[in-house]
Write a structure and sequence with these properties.
Layout lengths: L3 E6 L7 H15 L5 E6 L1 H4 L6 H18 L7 E4 L5 H10 L4 H5 L2 H7 L8 H15 L5 E3 L5 H17 L10 E3 L34 H10 L18 H13 L4 H8 L4 H26 L3 H30 L2
Parallel strand pairs: 1-2, 2-3, 4-5
This protein binds tryptophanyl-5'AMP.
The site of tryptophanyl-5'AMP (TYM) has 25 residues, from β1, α1 and α7.
């Protein structure tokens, strides 16, 4: 039987290779497996948990949609929409927020990282962000949720909330408990400047990440400048232990080449970094440049992007509004 897939990406600009390898590339693979039903969401409600400029947000919603399309998500096969166009997400979030416990949310490490030292000044939205994420997933009865490693804890919370709702309201199996889909070796792409830090859109150094809108020269230059060490490439996976930058570059290479880390090591062991970086840059350019070119061309056609979102929003609304009505009935409204 096919899987029911739901996932989302925030429209906060600077979509990067980590988002592609950890998430979007898998969205495309899952869409292309027969029998799967896929819903991919531009999560604009999540974006406003931190301050956004309204004009830039609108552009970023279109750019993230363009990135989905340019990467190979096909609006005829998958539902593509933006979260704020389906009101059930906000409604569901409120109801599930009354099921979730403070103690559970207090354990969320991403909130602690994002809120930084001054937690008092973080928005309440940022704190309850994983509850909205839970509503996203449960409204579509998703069986599987493809994400990068950093979302694992949020998905565990979604499972807990679904189970508690079913128990509290004596509605066994009503909310489907979703399974995370996290790639084994490539679910956490690291900064090109520091192999112990995640590649992230908020890193002040643009050299730390490859953006999905980078030019060929930018890609080549960033890989050339990526941090490495002085040893040649190892001949065994175990020897990557203390070499996070090397492990990361090999992970990027393997994922884009659709092969295991072990196979890449076999292919490249003993090579020096200048040679490996040349091979890697060529591969990244081959895979990412067509996406970048397509994003830059698609965002010029706002009418088309908006029509994709509108059509997707209508389809999403049909599913989500039915589920929220059932939820409301169960709650006693
Ligand atoms: P967001 O927008 O931060 O990231 C989008 C996806 O990219 C993955 N990702 C990475 N994967 C590997 N290496 C990295 N360096 C890296 N950086 C980001 C993320 O894990 C994610 O899969 N809360 C979510 C969006 C969301 C969602 C949902 C996801 C909202 N509702 C429902 C799944 C289901 C987020 O902020 O992702």
């Amino acid at each position: 039987m096919g899987k029911k897939i739901f996932s989302g990406v925030q429209p906060t600009g600077n979509l990067h290779l980590g988002n592609y390898i950890g998430a979007i590339k898998n969205f495309v693979d899952l869409q292309n497996q027969p029998g799967n039903e896929c819903v991919y969401c531009v999560v604009d409600l999540h974006a406003i948990t931190t301050k956004q400029d309204p004009k830039i947000l609108k552009d970023n919603i279109r750019e993230t949609t363009a990135a989905f399309l340019a990467s190979g998500i096909n609006p005829k096969k998958s539902i593509i929409f933006n979260q704020s166009s389906v009101s059930a997400h906000a409604e569901g979030s409120w109801i599930l927020g009354c099921v979730a416990r403070m103690g559970w949310l207090n354990r969320m490490t991403q909130f602690k990282e994002k809120a930084g030292k001054d937690k008092e000044k973080a928005s309440i939205g940022l704190y309850i962000y994983p509850v909205l994420m839970t509503a996203d997933i449960l409204l579509y009865d998703a069986s599987h949720v493809p994400v990068g490693e950093d979302q694992k804890q949020h998905l565990e919370l979604s499972r807990d909330i679904a189970q508690k709702f079913n128990l509290d309201f004596k509605a066994p199996n009503f909310l489907r408990v979703p399974e995370p889909l996290i790639q084994k070796n490539f679910s956490r792409i690291m900064s090109l400047k520091d192999g112990t830090n995640k590649m992230s859109k908020s890193d002040p150094s643009d050299l730390s990440r490859i953006n999905l809108t980078d030019t060929k020269d930018q890609i080549v230059n960033k890989i050339k400048k990526a941090k490495t060490d002085t040893e040649p490439l190892p001949d065994d996976e175990k020897k990557l232990n203390q070499r996070p930058e090397v492990e990361n570059l090999l992970g990027i290479y393997s994922s884009l080449n659709n092969q295991s880390l072990q196979d890449s090591i076999k292919e490249l062991s003993g090579k020096n970094f200048s040679k490996f970086k040349e091979i890697l840059a060529e591969l990244v350019v081959e895979k990412i440049l067509p996406i970048s070119t397509e994003i830059n061309s698609l965002i010029k056609d706002k009418r088309y992007i908006d029509s994709v979102l509108k059509e997707g929003g209508e389809k999403a609304n049909q599913i989500a509004s039915k589920k929220i009505e059932e939820i409301k009935k169960i709650v006693g409204f």
